[in-house]
Amino acid sequence: MLELRSVTAGYGRTRVLHDVSITVPTGRAVAVMGLNGAGKTTLLRVAMGLLPITSGSIVIDGEDVTGTRPSERVRRGLGYVPQGQLSFPTMTTRENLQLVAPKNAAAIDQILDLFPALRAVLDRRAGLLSGGQRQQLAIGRALLTKPKLLILDEPTEGIAPNVVAEIERTILELNSTGELGVLLVEQHVGFALRAAEHFYVLESGRITGSGEGGNDAGSRVRSMMAV
Ligand SMILES: Nc1ncnc2c1ncn2[C@@H]1O[C@H](COP(=O)(O)OP(=O)(O)OP(=O)(O)O)[C@@H](O)[C@H]1O
């Protein structure tokens, strides 16, 4: 379980997150919805320990991890897929995977079973992949660290709808085993609300609403976000 308790954080003197509290129960899928600039990426960076907080606390499985390094949070089960499908562009798909799991062909094979589209581009440089392939590679690399909670920053941004459906199917499948929790931030309600059991609305760095996922969640979130 990941908890952000009354977290305040920002850059220099600019405060971006104000008293933000969210909970991601073990094995559950939670979405944070918010418009451009609401502070979604900042929230994830804070959860990962990539940005210090000025007040509040961050708790993983009941233990206060505020102030610990990102590597410690990875050790405790967080896997982060930053926005922009980051991989090493001059390395091939295979090399990008091997970098995370050297000498573990079986683990890489499992990832390729989850994302079969990557098999066809194993020897292609990551920088030459399509947005969808890059996103699948980025998620695959995060999964190779065997996370308990996969943290996704706008996984559908700039990706063709058929690939979004493919990624959604895979994530739902992994989450349905109860072994992988998911925390994702999104501007677009579709994917996130189909995947998430619970959602929060983040506006100008504050949580202004929350609710359960479900068929009517899209319209509830839209009315909360006034879009
Ligand atoms: N490195 C930084 N230094 C200073 N301000 C920053 C930095 N990164 C983000 N900000 C500011 O913090 C606020 C929140 O940005 P953030 O990227 O967290 O929002 P977001 O909801 O993820 O937006 P988007 O959907 O556009 O990615 C914005 O006003 C942004 O300009």
TrEMBL record:
Domain ABC transporter per the UniProt entry, residue ranges: 2-227
Keywords: Amino-acid transport, ATP-binding, Nucleotide-binding, Transport
Pfam short name (any one): ABC_tran
Matches recorded under InterPro entries: AAA+_ATPase, ABC_transporter-like_ATP-bd, BCAA_Transport_ATP-bd_LivF, P-loop_NTPase
CDD domains membership: ABC_TM1139_LivF_branched
MF annotations from Gene Ontology: ATP binding
Transport is among the record's keywords: yes
Classification via SMART domains: AAA (SM00382)
Lineage: superkingdom: Bacteria
Ligase recorded as keyword: no
Family label: Belongs to the ABC transporter superfamily.
Listed name of the protein: Urea ABC transporter ATP-binding subunit UrtE
Organism: Nostocoides veronense
Gene assigned in the entry: urtE
